[in-house]
Amino acid sequence: MADTLGISEAQILGLFIASVFWGMLLITFVQTIRYLLWDSDAKGGQFKRLSTINWSMLVVALLLMALSTFDVSLGLMHSIEAFIFYTGPGGSTARFTGLTDWVNVLKTCNVVFGKVISDGVLIFRCWAVCNHNILIVVFPILLWMGYLGTGIFVIYLEASAGNPRVLLTGGMSKITPSITAGWTMSLTNNIITTGIIVYRIWRVDKSNALYGIQTQESATQGSRSLFGSKKRQRTKLQNIIRIVIESGMMYTTTAFITFITFVVGSNSFYPTSDAELQILAIAFNLIIIRISTRPSGSGDYSTSVQSASQTFPLQKFSSATKGTVDTVPTQESLSIY
């Protein structure tokens, strides 16, 4: 069945959707920079000392913002060239179907390296949350390297394909399998690493509840609902689990929809892929913002462990967990978000 969405309409729709999400990204980016550079706990508020700034997260936020902005700029320029400056045969359709056009190649580069950065950060978070256990992230690292390799190979094939008037979703025998394999590895990597992070934090929170180690936030009385029943108060780690799952699902769902549109060869691949890079950066920023807005004093596990150790020795806690990695995470491991 023929695609009812033409390539010209798809590109315009993609530019609109990307612009909307870029506006959302700009708001979250400003807030992310604020929490990474500004110490609101200090009296009157002040910039953090250089030694306390999380430089790795700051660099990633800047890179994702730069790639997303560049992608929207490329889409705008591509549309202007296709509808205004291009006067050759075929009109805008011929301009958009130039597979080896440098704009199309650069947009592919943006998506590939944006996902490489995002997946790399996710693996790093998984490694840090799991007490720097490299064995846990061996398979995700292999998937990450596989996606990086296939991504570079796709860029090479796209740039050296000559000048065929086909779309990226046109089912080319060389490019399609590589894109499909790379996208599958990236999606699998996201699902596995997010699952490990959530499981690890859940195990720690479960162990804390079992041995009476609670944060001040979890020990307080729950608030009343609209009908008078008491709502269960979540611990800080339970809130982190919710944040990680929600942000992960937001990006993974978008990536899965984009993958499906590519597999079926629909032109709706272009609007969804334009939105994917923006949502990827938004999801990264939201994790930092939502965890940074949690009261630092109410959910600080380092404080709660010190008070809990007076009644339950940490040596007994370690032996009770029977040698598992379910130890209480330090503030450093939580700050990676």
From TrEMBL:
Keywords of this entry: Membrane, Transmembrane, Transmembrane helix
Transmembrane segments: 12-33, 53-76, 134-157, 177-199, 240-265, 277-293
Source species, domain of life: Eukaryota
Protein name (record): Uncharacterized protein
Biological source species: Lentinula aciculospora
